[in-house]
Design a protein that fits this description.
The protein is of the alpha/beta class and about 325 residues long. The protein has eleven helices and ten strands. The protein folds into two domains: about 280 residues, TIM Barrel; about 30 residues, no CATH class. The strands form two sheets. It has an eight-stranded parallel β-barrel with strand order 1-2-3-4-6-8-9-10, surrounded by five helices.
C-alpha cells in the first residue's frame, strides 16, 4: 500500500517568525508549509484561517504552491463555550450546524473531500450539569444534519477526552462510534488523533482497527506525547512502537484518507519539524510494510509477545544481538 498524502498544521507554520520573511498570514503559512519536502497538502481551520480571505485567494495559493487542501477543520470560538451541537440553546445549536455546513461547502469548493469536526465545547465540567442522554442525542442530531446536508463530503468526529471541557459527549473511540452508529449515514465517521487517543487511555492502533472494521475511519492525525496532555510532539518521538503498529493497522485495513501532522513546534524551526514528521512516517511506513504477516499471525495465535517483539522491534531482535 502506498504512503498516503501527508499534510501539515498551518498553525505550526506561525512558529519562529524570525526564520521567515513573510507576514505569516494564512497565505504565507501555506507558502511556508510548501517549502517542506514531502508535504503534499495542508488542512485549513474554519473560520480561523479564512478571516478576510476568500476561496479565490486560497485556490490561487494552492495552485502557486502545488499543495492540496487535505481537509477543513472546524474551530468553534468562545461564543459556543457552552457547546456547539450540544448547546442548551436550540438557536445556538442551529448556528453551529449552519457554520459547519458553511465549512463543508468551502471544502468542496477547494477540492477537499473531508470535513473534520472537533467539538471543542460539546461536553460539561460539573456533576449534574447536563442530561447525558440528551447530550448524546444533540450530538447525533448535529452530525446527522451536517452529514445529510453534505452527502458528497466525508464528515468526521475528532474525539478528545479532555481540554477545554472536563468531559465530552464523545471522549473516546467507543462513544464516538456510538454517535456514528446512531447517525447512520455512510459519510459520517471518525478522525483519530494519536495524542487524543493516548489521553483517552487507548491504544491508537486498536481504536483505528475498530473504526476501520466499520469502514468509518476517515482521518488520521499523527503526533506524539506523554499521554497526559495534547503535547503535539514529533511523530514517533515517544511512542515509536505504538506508531508503527498504527501504521501497520492502516496498511492492513486499506486506509483511504490522508495523514495530517497535528504537531506544535514552539522552539523548533517549523519547516524542519514538519520534515522530521515526514521522515519518521516514511521510515515507519516502510518498516510496517516489511513485517512478515504470516509470522505475525502465527505469533498472534499464541499471543506470543516475545516472538512478536522479535518480529517488529529492532531493539528486541535477538538474532542481531
Amino acid at each position: 500500500m502506498d504512503l498516503p498524502i501527508l499534510s501539515c498544521r498551518l498553525n505550526a507554520m506561525s512558529s519562529r517568525p524570525d526564520l521567515w520573511n513573510g507576514s505569516l498570514d494564512t497565505v504565507d503559512r501555506i507558502r511556508r508549509a510548501a517549502t517542506t519536502d514531502g508535504i503534499g497538502a495542508v488542512d485549513i481551520n474554519y473560520p480561523q484561517h479564512v478571516d478576510g480571505i476568500n476561496a479565490a485567494d486560497l485556490k490561487a495559493v494552492m495552485v502557486e504552491t502545488g499543495l492540496a487542501v487535505g481537509a477543513i477543520n472546524l474551530r468553534y470560538d468562545g461564543y459556543f463555550s457552552l457547546g456547539a451541537f450540544t448547546n442548551p440553546d436550540p438557536k445556538i445549536r442551529r448556528e453551529a450546524i449552519d457554520l459547519t455546513i458553511e465549512a463543508g461547502n468551502l471544502a468542496l469548493e477547494l477540492g477537499a473531500q473531508h470535513l473534520i469536526v472537533w467539538p471543542a465545547h460539546d461536553g460539561y465540567d460539573y456533576p449534574f450539569q447536563v442530561d447525558y442522554r440528551k447530550l448524546h442525542t444533540h450530538s447525533v442530531e448535529g452530525f446527522s444534519a451536517v452529514g445529510d446536508s453534505l452527502p458528497e463530503l466525508l464528515v468526521s468526529l475528532e474525539y478528545k477526552p479532555i481540554e477545554p471541557r472536563r468531559f465530552y459527549a464523545a471522549s473516546d473511540i467507543g462513544t464516538s462510534m456510538l454517535v456514528v452508529r446512531d447517525v447512520d449515514l455512510p459519510n459520517v465517521g471518525v478522525a483519530l488523533d494519536f495524542a487524543h487517543s493516548l489521553m483517552a487511555g487507548e491504544n491508537p492502533a486498536q481504536a483505528a482497527a475498530l473504526a476501520l472494521a466499520e469502514d468509518r475511519l476517515f482521518g488520521i492525525h499523527l503526533n506524539d506525547g506523554y499521554s497526559r496532555a495534547d503535547d503535539g510532539l514529533v511523530t514517533g518521538s515517544i511512542h515509536t512502537l505504538s506508531t508503527l503498529e498504527l501504521l501497520y493497522v492502516l496498511q492492513q485495513g486499506g486506509y483511504k484518507g490522508h495523514i495530517y501532522f497535528d504537531t506544535f513546534p514552539i522552539n523548533e524551526d517549523p519547516v524542519k519539524e514538519a520534515h522530521a514528521n515526514v521522515l519518521a512516517v516514511r521510515k515507519l511506513w516502510h518498516r510496517a510494510s516489511e513485517i512478515d504477516g504470516t509470522e505475525l499471525r502465527n505469533a498472534r495465535e499464541r499471543h506470543d509477545a516475545l516472538q512478536i517483539l522479535d518480529l517488529v522491534h529492532p531493539a528486541m531482535d535477538r538474532d542481531k544481538a
